[in-house]
Amino acid sequence: MMLTLYSRYGKQLRFLIAGGLNTIVGLSIYPLFYIFLEPIGFGYIQVLLFSQMFCITFSFFTNKYFVFKTKGNVKEEYLRFFAFYGFYLLLNLLCLPFLVEVIQITPILAQTLFSFAIIVSSYFWHNLVTFKQTKESLWCRLRNFYLGNAQFV
Q1: How far apart are CA 108 and CA 96, in angstroms?
Q2: Would you say 26 and 48 are in contact if contact means Cβ atoms under 8 Å apart?
Q3: Which SS3 state, helix, strand or coil, does residue 50 take?
Q4: Under the phi-then-psi rule, with left for phi > 0, alpha for psi from -120 to 50, and beta for the rest, what region is 105?
Q5: How far apart, in whole angstroms, are the C-alpha atoms of residue 144 and residue 153?
Q6: Which of the two residues, 138 and 53, has the higher pLDDT score?
């Protein structure tokens, strides 16, 4: 029974395990960096940048080698991986100050709340774009994902 489930849903189960580990690391790194760097003059945005660089790289390696088990293409896959998280980083750079300065949420809580949007959407992006083993172009895969396999005449 368990072997059948793993053979059918192995990638999804590995993604949940890696996602749990990445979530623990991600939710721990920002507060740790904040606690140690804020007293020596780093602002919460600088801490965000440092922590995200660390977490993006850590998450890339867990996804590449444990979840999707792809061979080669490290630079290309890292660039696609970073494109996803880079987008969220830019969005985060807009949202975190709003949550902290306007809504008056502490930086650690605000960053924790924002992290859940990333967790929910990351599997789909990485499965369809970052670690997809196909010669089909990125734009074709995204088009097919959003529009189905419709042919454009």
Answers
A1: 10
A2: no
A3: helix
A4: beta
A5: 15
A6: 53
Helix (H, G, I), strand (E, B) or coil at 102: helix
Q: Read off the pLDDT of residues 13-63 as tens digits, 9 standing for 90 and up.
A: 998 899 899 989 988 999 999 999 999 999 999 999 999 999 999 999 999
List C-alpha distances in Å: 96 to 4, 90, 106, 120: 43, 10, 10, 18
Please give the structure tokens belonging to residue 99: 């949550």
User: What are 107's two structure tokens?
Assistant: 């930086």
Determine contact, residues 21/62, Cβ cutoff 8 Å: yes
Question: Model pTM?
Answer: 0.72
Measured between alpha carbons, how far is 123 from 63 in angstroms, rounded to an integer? 10
Name the percent of the chain lying above pLDDT 90.
Answer: 48
CA dist., res. 19 & res. 105, Å (int): 25
Separation in Å, CA 11 to CA 18, 65, 92, 125, 129? 10, 12, 28, 14, 15
Cα R_g (the chain), whole angstroms:
18
Rounded CA gap, 71 and 10, in Å? 18
